[in-house]
Specification:
There is one protein chain. By secondary structure, the chain is α/β, with parallel strands linked by helices. It has one domain (3-339): TIM Barrel (Alpha-Beta Barrel), CATH 3.20.20.210. The chain is 46% helix and 11% strand. The chain is built from 15 helices and nine strands. A hairpin with a 6-residue loop joins strand 2 (87-88) and strand 3. Helix 4 runs parallel beside helix 7 (119-131), helix 8 packs across helix 9 and helix 8 crosses helix 10 (171-195). The model has no long low-confidence stretch (mean pLDDT 96).
């Protein structure tokens, strides 16, 4: 069949007439015992720097489950390090030793040359395609706003109030930062595609904390710039927004193909609100801690609520959680695949 005619790629373009495709956010990771075996030997940062290990852990969920797409194993913070940002990954999330607070801080950030500065990531993509040539591969990056949240706050936060205040206290500095990040993200995603990724996804993990007007300015505007710079490559572009529902009117006008839907929103409502998009989502990851029968019931409830499946990519409504039972994942994948047969 080939990647170009796969159910996943066809669904991205709203033309899938076959089996409903499924992949799982964070599918290469902590819930898999084979991933833990790798991590027992290397740190997270060492893993992200090894093309062979990147490919190995990207392949693991594909070998275990009949998933329809692979995703690059990396981190949204990886591209910040060659910019001169001191990033570490202690327990509890990323830490930045030199956060952004002034225009001088922004101008000290170094533009990256992904081919040189992020060659391990790009070589990882090439290694994945060697072992998974017929499986669509998703490359990814963090959105400008999500990266800015960490750059300004210096670490994770439940509210990112410092980052939100920064947009209003120092709008000129924020504008320069976001313009810089948009250019760098577009360049990074382009090189991922050139290395072999057939799809790219932007993670807007924190944009859902913004007002409607701020979302339009600080999320939609720079993301449209990024996607616009990739439009000539003719590949599907996915945007996942955590807490997307308040912004459907803005999202529907984006220059991209697929919108990832978080678990807070009914998927049938999202498909109605986004008639121009393929839709990805959106089972609550905690459902997978129920019995197999419960997982099947909740999955079927979502599927039964829909009127169209040609533009559906099934997924979780956020990343899969550690300790998720493997049997639940198997039941989820089988239920989705069997639904349209």
């Amino acid at each position: 069949m080939g990647v170009a005619n796969s159910s996943f790629i066809n669904a991205c373009y709203r033309r899938n007439t076959g089996q409903i495709p499924i992949w799982i956010m964070r599918q290469a990771g902590r819930y898999l015992p084979e991933y833990q075996e790798v991590r027992d030997k290397v740190s997270f940062q060492e893993l992200c720097q090894s093309p062979k290990l990147i490919a190995k852990v990207a392949e693991q969920p594909i070998k275990r489950f009949d998933l329809d797409a692979a995703i690059l194993f990396s981190d949204i913070m990886t591209m910040l390090e060659p910019m001169g940002i001191d990033v570490s990954f202690p327990d509890g999330g990323p830490k930045i030793a030199n956060p952004i607070s002034t225009i001088a801080d922004v101008r000290r950030m170094t533009p990256i040359n992904p081919v040189n500065d992020l060659s391990n990531v790009l070589d990882g993509i090439k290694e994945i395609k060697k072992i998974l040539p017929d499986i669509p591969l998703i490359g990814f990056a963090g959105s400008p706003f999500t990266l800015a949240c960490y750059l300004i706050e210096g670490q994770g936060s439940k509210t990112f109030n410092s980052a939100k205040k920064f947009l209003h206290q120092s709008p000129d500095v924020a504008e320069e930062l976001f313009d810089f990040l948009a250019e760098e993200i577009a360049s990074y995603l382009r090189t991922q595609i050139e290395a072999g990724a057939e799809v790219v996804q932007l993670f807007e993990s924190w944009g859902g904390i913004l007002s409607h007007d701020d979302f339009a300015h600080w999320v939609i505007r720079p993301i449209n710039k990024i996607f616009g710079q990739l439009s000539d490559l003719k590949i599907p572009r996915i945007l996942f927004v955590n807490n997307v529902a308040p912004y459907f009117d803005l999202i529907n006008e984006l220059d991209n193909e697929v919108i990832g839907i978080d678990y807070r929103t009914r998927l049938n409502q999202a498909m109605t609100a986004l008639p121009n998009k393929s839709v990805q989502g959106n089972l609550d990851p905690t459902v997978l801690f129920g019995t197999p029968e419960h997982v099947r019931e909740k999955t079927l409830k979502i599927l039964d609520s829909l009127e169209s499946y040609d533009r559906l990519i099934f997924n979780l409504g956020h990343g899969i959680l550690p300790e998720t039972p493997l049997e639940s994942v198997r039941v989820l994948v089988e239920t989705v695949h069997n639904y349209r047969n």
